[in-house]
Amino acid sequence: MSLRIFLPLLSAFGLSILPSFADEPNRTGESERPNVVVFVADDMGWGDSGTYGHELIKTPNLDKLAARGVKLTQCYSACAVCSPSRSAILTGRHPYRNGVWRHLSGNHKAHLRESEITYPKLLKSIGYETCHVGKWHLNSLPHFNTAEYPQPGDHGYDHWMATHNNAHPSHKNPDNFVRNGEPIGEQKGYSAQIVAAEATEWLSEKRNKSKPFALSVWVHEPHSPIATDPKFSALYGEHDNRTYMGNITQLDDAVGQVMQTLDAEGVSDNTLFFFTSDNGPVARYGGTTGGLRGGKRSDHEGGIRVPGIVCWPGHISPGTTSSVPVVGTDIFTTVLAIAEVPLPKDRTIDGVNIVPALSGKPVDRPIPLFWRTHVSPPQDRVAMRIGDWKIVGNDTLTKFQLFEIEKDWKEENDLAEAMPEKTEAMKQQLLALWKQIEAEGPNEWWEGERNKPARGGTLNY
């Protein structure tokens, strides 16, 4: 179904598509293009750090990063599970547009297509050095590190060391890393520190230091199967949750390693450092949403609202907070804006330039924040937010909840019955947007699958 069919429908509900990808990015005025570091935790909840108010979890490096920059209190992932949210970071496009609509475990035909344009590929085309270390999870396991499907190098990375999905057999001594296409066998130590060490070596020894760089650091912590270095779990004594809390401190230590290397290389002052998580936490492993409703897989706030900390010296006031809603898809657009790279004009880009939000200023968002998670509980499988209002729909798009998020951030008061006109207007906007998104993506990949019941068992994705 063509995009042209749905543009009038979207316009009728106040939604504009074309300006989001036809406009030129804002100019930075810098003669030297900034470096970019995007650090992504795995299953880390909004409440899983001292930085975001946890009374016990120690995250001194995230505290330091926030002290140097801005803490985002309404930062969202693009999906409530892993693969889709990561695809959105790289492409700036909703997962159902870019094709990574589901978690890519087992054997599945969905993958991040080579036709998708990633920000590392665009930055590389203008002279950036690029590197990815850590988790990948943008193709299924049988297709990882094969010629059949695109790999990190095909999406713009000069150097990469990655696992398909989780560290195996756990965070301790993982044996499934691949470096530039070559399996490297068991690595002694813990995953976050192994990933940070690779990033450190690349920054200090391997990259061309005459070029700007873009570095992706996607650690496995605190995703299961969890293994924590005793020196971090010991910080929490005999607490029942010491392994999980220590695992957060373990990933925080990796953040510190990267920050220290940037300082040692003298590049911190010209580097945008963005820390976030791919989705919300798993409570039974010890994760916490900080009071938000739901968790991983849910399109309520606990599944999609995640930590977000951005440091960019000289451009962001240190030690500040911003409550402006931002989402993972915005990373693509923002990175291209600060690097002075025009956005692609041949496809819909959902993300927007959030540089104003980093100073607490509102952003123009022509396409609303939208989530559809294929394994969410049936009653909250789709959601959309416009301004302070959020609508949550069920798997068949027939029953909806309405929340005023600024006042009700825990989503305790469903206003759908009390405000039927508002609910209906939001519903129609959501349905129109969903039809447009579905029409643009490779819908043959999900036909017949998207409304399957959420599966139980272990969360290995």
Automatic annotation (TrEMBL):
<dbReference type="InterPro" id="IPR050738">
    <property type="entry name" value="Sulfatase"/>
</dbReference>
<dbReference type="GO" id="GO:0004065">
    <property type="term" value="F:arylsulfatase activity"/>
</dbReference>
<dbReference type="InterPro" id="IPR017850">
    <property type="entry name" value="Alkaline_phosphatase_core_sf"/>
</dbReference>
<dbReference type="Pfam" id="PF00884">
    <property type="entry name" value="Sulfatase"/>
</dbReference>
<keyword id="KW-0378">Hydrolase</keyword>
<protein>
    <submittedName>
        <fullName>N-acetylgalactosamine 6-sulfate sulfatase (GALNS)</fullName>
    </submittedName>
</protein>
<comment type="similarity">
    <text>Belongs to the sulfatase family.</text>
</comment>
<dbReference type="GO" id="GO:0046872">
    <property type="term" value="F:metal ion binding"/>
</dbReference>
<dbReference type="InterPro" id="IPR024607">
    <property type="entry name" value="Sulfatase_CS"/>
</dbReference>
<dbReference type="InterPro" id="IPR000917">
    <property type="entry name" value="Sulfatase_N"/>
</dbReference>
<keyword id="KW-0479">Metal-binding</keyword>
<feature type="domain" description="Sulfatase N-terminal">
    <location>
        <begin position="34"/>
        <end position="340"/>
    </location>
</feature>
<feature type="signal peptide">
    <location>
        <begin position="1"/>
        <end position="22"/>
    </location>
</feature>
<keyword id="KW-0106">Calcium</keyword>
<keyword id="KW-0732">Signal</keyword>
